Amino acid sequence: MQIVLYIFLTLSILFLPINAFAAGKPVVRMANELYTYNMGFNNIALDNNTKKQLWQSIYNKLNGMQAKGKLPFELAGETAMVSHKMEELSGDSEIFLIPAVMVNTAHDTSYASTTEVFYNTAITSGISIIFCMAEENYDTGGVTYRMLGMIPLVNNCMIGSDQNHKRTSPLTDYEKLNKFVELSNESINKQLDFSSSMKNLKDKNAKFNMDTYQVTDVKITSDNVQKAFPGTEGEDLKFLVAYNFTAGYQQRNKRIVYPPSITNSNFASNVAKTAYSLSLDGPNGSVDVGVSAPGHSISLDITGANFTYSNNIIAYKVWLAKSPVEKNEKAELERGYSRELINSGNITIDHGDVYSRLLMGLAWELGGQKL
Question: In the 3-class helix/strand/coil scheme, how is 290-336 assigned residue by residue?
Fold first, then answer.
């Protein structure tokens, strides 16, 4: 089952209905299921029990924040099923909050000496809190969902890179899942913050397209990264970098952001036709969510990556650039990392794990610059 998200490149003004507001705050209903996006990059399999646990973690966090007066909206007491039919959308609000797993990846790599093989795994959790408005579609008689914005959360770790905890066997699927859940819960509890970030929910006459931001392009001009991530892996790396940038950008600057729209990825299906789609697996059929063109487009470029090896120490460095550049931002940042290798003769190394982790961390840093 799919949630399909279309971006229509037109300017639009969204008017929130009067009954969507209560006591000065908009009423928001949370979807009763967790949705997932299949980005195709070494996805960790999420069973139904895991999805329910993560949904409950988000629900508990939101209720705790509401009890402390830290939500800019009123969370409705009852959750809701995301539906195609207007008559099924009963309740006080047509504003929906849809929790979605956007990134659930485990990138396995290794390096081998003449006597042993050592394994590394880069795990990433990316959960988004998506806000949308349910509107009656008079052409189809059904429901159209229009995106208002999202809160992207992200958390990463590398297992096996610690010299004191080398792995001589690959990480199991069970270990990957447990680590993903741990990373997800940590980001939900530590990163979820709505302070001044959802101002479009407060103004029923807001012009959303004017003050929204979206990564619309990621280039890989680095030859080393192109070699490490050929074909579709390169396209999926672009989405990972764009998502990490978006998370850092939103959390630092409290601006309204949309999911990355990257050419040739599953999300951006056809730039020429200005039609984009994001497919999320859900329990209740497909839902169309319209999103206006962003007021501000952001482009990223993976401009460089290299490594040097000397005296059993391998050192890496990557570069990432952004345009346009705002106020006090730097146009390009770099990040490095070094580690000791256990040398027993000739060594064969897959550098993709380090490049991917460095780039995701650097994307967060680049997006998180103070304007």
Answer: EEECCCEEEEEEEEEEEEEEECCEEEEEEEEEEECCCCCCCCEEEEE
- Strand pairing report for 296-310 and 212-220: parallel
Measure the CA–CA gap between 89 and 260, rounded to whole angstroms: 28
Measured in degrees and rounded to the nearest 5, phi and psi for residue 248 equal -65, -40
Secondary structure (DSSP) of 50-115: HHHHHHHHHHHHHHHHHHTT--SSEE-SS-B---S-GGG--SS-SEEEEEEEEEEEEEEEEEE-SS
Q: Are 1 and 286 in contact (CB under 8 A)?
A: yes
DSSP-derived pairing of the beta strands 256-257 and 212-220: parallel
Q: What is the DSSP string of 252-264?
A: HH--EE-----BT
d(CA 274, CA 59): 35
Angle, alpha carbons 41-268-213 (nearest 5°): 100
DSSP state of 117: E
Q: What percent of the chain has pLDDT over 70?
A: 74
Question: Would you say residue 251 has pLDDT above 60?
Answer: yes
User: Using CB atoms within 10 A of its CB, is residue 13 exposed (0-12), middle (13-18) or buried (19+)?
Assistant: exposed
181-219, pLDDT tens digit by residue? 999 999 999 998 886 555 556 544 444 456 889 999 999
Kindly state the tokens that stand for 307: 């490594």
CA dihedral defined by 318, 236, 167, 310, rounded to 10 degrees? -20
**Residue bearing the bigger pLDDT, 183 or 94:** 183
Nearest 5°: the CA angle 10, 154, 261 is 25
Query: Considering the entire predicted model, what is its pTM?
Result: 0.84
Host H or E run for residue 128: strand 117-136
